Amino acid sequence: MARRSWLWSYLALGVTWGCSFLFIKDALGFLAPFGVAFFRCALGAATLLALSLIRRERLPREPTVWGHLWVVGLTLNVVPGILFAVAETRVTSVVAGIVNALTPLTTLFFIVVVFRDEPVHAHQAAGLGLGLGGVLVVLGVWHGLGANPWWAVLALVGAVVLYGVSFPYTRRHLLGRGLSPVSMATAQLVLATVTLAPLFALHGFNGRAASPHALFGVVALGTLGSGLAYVWNFSVQRAAGSAVASTVTYLTPVVAVVAGVAVLGEPLAWYEPVGGALVLLGAALGQGRFGRYALRS
């Protein structure tokens, strides 16, 4: 497929995921963290259900598949959705977006160390170390944690660690079953929504009135960030390959920084983009991208 046919999906994916941290910050204007996570999944599920009906895609039928999808929903949507929202009650969307760039490294850690699906290589260990060092720079640890409470930082790291669990778990238990990616994502978000519903009923709103931009943030976070983004991601993987699709990781934090500073007027310390660059460099090193480029040249 020609490059321009997937490029727009690639850019839409990077911009949407990069702006997700801004959308979370907006949504917190009237929603509690449970409410942010619930609407993110519910609107995403509604979007994908509509798409599945249009495409006449069937949801999975095997109970074991639904069980695995529930685990993926917990580790990819439910708990991280709550943790990011909790963290962003105190940290900037810029910091959240940069720490999120650690996801490829936590994924790599679980693939090679915990699940042991691949052998450990020197460049992977170096990438993990560089990425972790980058996060410490982002947080400005020489100032303590600055304005970032320890529990908010722990929430961000916990969310990224769970992302790292979800991807190899999906690869081991769900891929290769011949299931449609859209149908799996739809079922996953439906399960996540049902799981979050009691928590939303317990404490979904924070008591403040919903402004237009807060409502827009919620709708965009759900329909785009947890709905159409899945479709764009799959279309890029299908047209350009998983290697190209995975590079959206490098675009997302850049968009998060620009959106946080330009739209929300958030402060940006000099060490935050420096640390972010180290995280991205570590991710690229861990994924072996420098070796690929050397072989091509």
Record keyword descriptors for this entry.
mainly alpha; 77% helix; 297 residues; 13 helices
Report the helical percentage. Answer: over 70%
What is the rounded distance between the termini?
24 Å
Mean pLDDT: 87
Shape: globular
Structure description:
The C terminus is likely disordered. This protein has one domain. It is globular, with a radius of gyration of 19 Å. By secondary structure, the chain is mainly α.
Q: In summary, what is this structure?
A:
The chain has helices at residues 3-27, 33-55, 63-87, 93-100, 103-114, 122-138, 150-173, 181-203, 212-240, 242-246, 248-262, 271-286, 289-296.
Per-chain topology:
Layout: H1 3-27, H2 33-55, H3 63-87, H4 93-100, H5 103-114, H6 122-138, H7 150-173, H8 181-203, H9 212-240, H10 242-246, H11 248-262, H12 271-286, H13 289-296
Helix pairs in contact: 1-4, 1-9, 1-11, 2-3, 2-8, 2-9, 3-7, 3-8, 4-11, 4-12, 5-6, 5-7, 6-12, 8-9
